[in-house]
């Protein structure tokens, strides 16, 4: 048996290594789940409690190396998506099935071959577990391919059956063991012990569910952000995964607060080292100075954003520009610049939506950047209110850009603020 476990450990280690090399985002997440062999009596395939990756050695032995990568990434994505902390009032089995569909379609987009029992349905592609849940039968006949050990409300066991209440009672008697596992898995110190791939013996009972789900959620959000950053820098984060990560990590602050933050940063006071007059001495002393900031504001008039939303956005800009001492140049664009623009406003002048602003064509962002370059405006900040679905310039401009986006479309450069 020991020899069999050793061979399974080697197979799992090889699968994790290939993930690190080929898909570093997923590989980094997988490395935060130390491996534990589990008793086949309660673990038919694989399982996670957001602290460990539990596996049935016989099940792993039947998988190909590609399928082994899939099941490792599957458990890690459940954790990265915080499925353990998002169920709320929902029925557990139905929620577990929705979570499996959501994860499996993400991995399918990454062209990862699944095991035979994986739940796959193209109509759920791009949907979150919350969006899939109401589309399922109230008591779904589907079974998840793994177990989600996040609470005591039953199991998401794939395949045959679910652990009975007697198993949970037995587990509660081993409370000391469960608490020890939580301490080792929830802390970053537990992640560092990756060299010990699996425990010497099998996990003979399902672990107790995590106690502090909010703390675990915060840890996985940090791991998600770090993994995405590393994969981006390596140039190995797919566009679909990048959109997913951006949505997951979208700031929870209201867009007004975020917009104010970036405008304040653009207009912050700074120090001047300009030489003083001779009457003040020969020394060059830093002095705090203030100056107005030049902000370019552009409205997308392609038809996806209504007049009320445009007025609300301009009212927010109007309120902010006095605070940051901003002179604003306003323009509008669909696939071409609006006639009558640009409109210029000093910091004390009220801004209103220009009369007769027409649009409704396609969306092309290039005319705006060509206009700014042609007129050599070089703003301290460009704020673009748009749905971000259009043609972007090939190169990033030399000035900072903030995109206030209605919808889920990504942007190729600048700072993206979700209109929530």
UniProtKB/TrEMBL annotation:
<feature type="compositionally biased region" description="Acidic residues">
    <location>
        <begin position="161"/>
        <end position="185"/>
    </location>
</feature>
<dbReference type="Pfam" id="PF13203">
    <property type="entry name" value="DUF2201_N"/>
</dbReference>
<dbReference type="InterPro" id="IPR025154">
    <property type="entry name" value="Put_metallopeptidase_dom"/>
</dbReference>
<dbReference type="InterPro" id="IPR036465">
    <property type="entry name" value="vWFA_dom_sf"/>
</dbReference>
<feature type="domain" description="VWA-like">
    <location>
        <begin position="295"/>
        <end position="419"/>
    </location>
</feature>
<feature type="region of interest" description="Disordered">
    <location>
        <begin position="140"/>
        <end position="214"/>
    </location>
</feature>
<dbReference type="Pfam" id="PF09967">
    <property type="entry name" value="DUF2201"/>
</dbReference>
<dbReference type="InterPro" id="IPR018698">
    <property type="entry name" value="VWA-like_dom"/>
</dbReference>
<feature type="domain" description="Putative metallopeptidase">
    <location>
        <begin position="9"/>
        <end position="280"/>
    </location>
</feature>
<protein>
    <recommendedName>
        <fullName>Metal-dependent peptidase</fullName>
    </recommendedName>
</protein>
<feature type="compositionally biased region" description="Low complexity">
    <location>
        <begin position="189"/>
        <end position="205"/>
    </location>
</feature>
């Amino acid at each position: 048996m020991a020899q069999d476990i050793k061979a399974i450990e080697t197979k799992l280690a090889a699968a994790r290594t290939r993930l690190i090399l080929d898909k570093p985002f997923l590989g980094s997440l997988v490395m935060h789940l130390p491996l534990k062999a589990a008793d086949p009596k309660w673990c038919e395939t694989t399982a996670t409690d957001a602290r460990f990756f539990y596996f049935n050695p016989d099940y792993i032995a039947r998988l190909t190396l590609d399928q082994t990568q899939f099941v490792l990434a599957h458990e890690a994505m459940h954790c990265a998506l915080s499925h353990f902390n998002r169920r709320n009032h929902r029925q557990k089995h139905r929620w577990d099935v929705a979570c499996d569909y959501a994860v499996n379609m993400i991995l399918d987009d990454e062209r990862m071959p699944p095991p035979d029992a994986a739940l796959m349905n193209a109509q759920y592609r791009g949907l979150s577990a919350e969006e899939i849940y109401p589309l399922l039968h109230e008591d779904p006949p589907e079974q998840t391919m793994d177990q989600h050990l996040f609470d005591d409300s039953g199991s998401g066991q794939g395949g045959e059956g679910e652990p009975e209440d007697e198993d949970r009672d037995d587990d509660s008697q081993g409370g000391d063991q469960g608490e020890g596992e939580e301490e080792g898995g929830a802390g970053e110190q537990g992640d560092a012990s990756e060299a010990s791939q699996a425990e010497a013996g099998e996990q003979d009972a399902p672990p107790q569910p995590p106690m502090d789900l909010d703390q675990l959620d915060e840890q996985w959000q940090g791991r998600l952000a770090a993994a995405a950053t590393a994969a981006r820098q390596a140039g190995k984060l797919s566009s679909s995964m990048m959109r997913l990560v951006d949505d997951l990590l979208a700031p929870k602050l209201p867009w007004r607060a975020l917009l104010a933050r970036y405008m304040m940063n653009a207009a912050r006071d700074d120090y001047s080292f300009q030489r003083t007059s001779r009457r003040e001495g020969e020394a060059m002393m830093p002095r705090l100075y203030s100056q107005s900031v030049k902000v370019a504001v552009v409205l997308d008039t392609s038809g996806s954003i209504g007049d009320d939303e445009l007025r609300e956005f301009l009212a927010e800009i109007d309120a902010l520009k006095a605070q940051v001492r901003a002179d604003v140049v306003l323009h509008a664009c669909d696939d071409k610049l609006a006639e009558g623009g640009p409109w210029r406003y000093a910091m004390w002048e009220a801004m209103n939506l220009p009369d007769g602003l027409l649009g409704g064509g396609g969306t092309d962002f290039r005319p705006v950047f060509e206009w700014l370059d042609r007129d050599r405006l070089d703003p301290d900040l460009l704020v673009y209110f748009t749905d971000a679905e259009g043609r972007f310039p090939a190169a990033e401009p030399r000035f900072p850009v903030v995109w206030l986006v209605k919808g889920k479309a990504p942007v190729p450069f600048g700072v993206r603020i979700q209109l929530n």
